[in-house]
Write a structure and sequence with these properties.
The termini are far apart. The protein is mainly alpha-helical and 599 residues long. The chain folds into two domains: 376 residues, no CATH class; 136 residues, Transcription Regulator spoIIAA. The chain is 60% helix and 5% strand.
Length: 599
């Protein structure tokens, strides 16, 4: 699809999905704003139906093997991967704002779910299902609540290097969790590094089932071979061949390979996922981690396809749609879900026009569950592992990290720190570490910001950093000091120290210090007290402290803090030039730059 071309489906979409933000709507329209899928249905064109049906059937060929594979990778029976596919797709088709986004089980969440389910379930599959369902409910509540509170901007606080770091760590975790299944044996997962040692030990102890490995490796090779053809259901073909070979030669008995086994017949039923009180905090932490990862992934993917289809997607509604889909998964025997960066392109390439594609795909999976639950009973576990490994490999980001390394090495190493955290401590702890790193990164520039003494440079209007313009002219007795950050508790002491240092290092005795405060967007109580102390210190040395270009909201804060009364109105100037004029009027400069001389 040409990204610059306007899709007919997009051009006919209702106002709420246009590129520009919608205007205020009537009460009925306001209610419909929460149901974007029904808005599309109101304007649905009959000639879209064939494209949506075909795309939905193509999509279903991928939904089945991938859903089962991610369920197994998450420590759950395979059928629950199909349950977690059907219900979320139907709910998102009504509540989700993106027209072609595909939701369902995802490899990026498998490591997090497994980290919670495996130690708490103690091998009980039904308890594992309840724990995973409870995580989905927690994630859903968090996402819906954040969407209603209009917190869609939160994931923007996670920088690209940090996202790369934790996603690379999760990719490694998922990959290592599936390698034993690919090799035909099992290990007790204790974290990525311990899993790696267990795999090496298993190989050295000759525990590899070479028939299972041959099937898994062949499946993996076939998936990558077909990957270049977008419209070809490569995963389905590879899995179907592996299933046929395993069933036709009876490899489950003759070679001892592990297979999926028969699936239960029947659609998912409403069920509250009850868990033990002792498991509650671990499930909440896991649900929060899932919410963070799933919305970060969904937000990026949703924006990308919104740009391609030239439609506006409200990130807050995206949160609500994702949360509602997770709630549906949690209450209908599913587990946490996210958007899919592998299935969405399949839907688009197959000609998807609207959310009806997801509905058709979900119904096709539901029919399979009802009519042919034993169709995949001979599916080898090593083939499912190959499906997950192929997706995990796709999660790794290397090329852009190398670009970041060339541009700014410290951000590259920050990414490596997050990657090491996930790889060493596991998915949940590593994600918590990534969030902490994001907060530190967010605060770092404001904690130790850039500051400068300003002067006049020959032939350049205005006042400029003397470190960048070594020949800049300083007005005798006047220090123009610029602070390039908000003033708050973490940097207030540094502000005081640097202002005093600038006055002490002035080549001429200082009479005034003027803070060029345009970059100062906020002041807190701690910083205000430090500024008051700085004023008293400078006044005792015979120096007047003034401010220029202070924003009105910041002025309002200073008035509430009582600093206006302490400084006086005459200490605040609208521009640096006005402050310089006032200084020159009070202290005429005999040897001044031509721009500074008074008439």
């Amino acid at each position: 699809m040409n990204p610059t071309a306007i899709d007919p489906a997009a051009s006919a979409a209702p106002k709420q999905t246009q590129l520009l933000r919608p205007r205020q709507a009537s009460d009925q329209q306001s209610l419909m704003r929460w149901l974007p899928g029904l808005q599309i249905l109101q304007h649905y064109r009959l000639n879209w139906l064939q494209s949506d049906v075909v795309a939905g059937l193509v999509l279903a060929t991928m939904l089945v093997p991938v859903g089962i594979a991610y369920a197994v990778a998450s420590g759950l029976p395979g059928i629950y991967g199909l349950y977690a596919t059907v219900v979320p797709l139907l709910i998102y088709a009504v509540v989700g704002p993106s027209r072609i986004l595909v939701l369902g089980p995802d490899s990026s969440l498998a490591a997090v779910i497994l980290a919670v389910v495996l130690p708490l379930s103690a091998g009980d599959p039904m308890r594992a299902v309840a724990l995973a369902g409870a995580m989905a409910v927690v994630s859903g509540v968090v996402c819906v609540g954040a969407g209603l509170a209009r917190l869609g901007f939160v994931t923007e606080l996670l920088s690209k290097p940090i996202r790369y770091g934790y996603m690379n760590g999760i990719a490694l975790t998922v990959l290592l969790s599936q390698v034993p299944k690919l090799l035909g044996f099992s290990v007790e997962s204790q974290g990525p590094l311990r899993d790696l040692w267990a795999i090496i030990k298993g190989v050295m102890d000759a525990r590899v089932n070479w028939v299972a490995f041959a099937i898994g490796a062949s499946t993996l090779a076939a998936i990558f071979l077909f990957k270049r053809f977008k419209v070809v259901p490569g995963i389905l073909i590879a899995v179907a061949i592996a299933t046929a070979v395993a069933g036709g030669f009876g490899l489950a008995k003759s070679a001892g390979i592990s297979v999926l086994g028969p699936l239960p017949q029947g659609l998912p039923a409403f069920e509250i996922p009850w868990i033990n009180r002792s498991d509650l905090m671990t499930v909440i932490y896991g649900g929060l981690a899932v919410a963070l990862i799933s919305f970060a992934d969904t937000c990026v993917l949703s924006r990308a396809y919104a740009a391609r289809t030239r439609t506006y997607v409200d990130p807050n509604q995206e949160l609500i749609g994702l949360g509602a889909a997770n709630l549906g998964a949690g209450f209908f025997q599913g587990f946490p879900i996210s958007s899919s960066s592998s299935r969405t392109p399949v839907a688009e390439a197959a000609g998807a026009k609207t959310q009806m594609t997801g509905v058709v795909g979900a119904l096709a999976v539901a029919i399979l569950i009802m009519a042919a639950p034993n169709l995949l009973r001979n599916l080898p576990t090593s083939a499912l592992a190959a499906v997950v490994i192929a997706s995990a490999i796709g999660l790794f980001e290397i090329t852009d990290l190398l670009r970041i390394y060339r541009m700014q090495k410290w951000e590259f190493w920050l990414s490596m720190f997050c990657f090491a955290g996930v790889a060493t401590f596991g998915a949940i702890q590593g994600i918590a570490l990534a969030v902490v790193a994001a907060i530190i990164e967010f605060l770092w520039d404001a904690w130790r910001p850039h500051f400068a003494v300003l002067g006049r440079a020959e032939g350049v209007r205005g006042f400029h950093d003397i470190s960048r313009y070594p020949g800049a002219h300083l007005i005798p007795g006047l220090v123009l000091f610029r602070w390039d950050a908000p003033l708050f508790f973490a940097n207030a002491e540094l502000f005081q120290e640097t202002v005093i240092s600038a006055a002490e290092n002035s080549p001429a005795p200082v009479r005034w210090v003027v803070v060029a405060a345009e970059p100062v967007t906020s002041v807190d109580v701690t910083a205000a007290d430090v500024v008051a102390e700085l004023d008293r210190t400078l006044r005792e040395a015979g120096i007047k402290l003034s401010f220029a270009e202070l924003k009105d909201p910041v002025k309002d804060k200073l008035k509430r803090f009582g600093l206006f009364t302490q400084f006086g109105e005459q200490s605040f100037f609208p521009t640096i030039g006005a402050a310089v004029d006032a200084y020159l009027a009070a202290y005429p400069v005999a040897q001044a730059n031509g721009q500074d001389k008074r008439p």
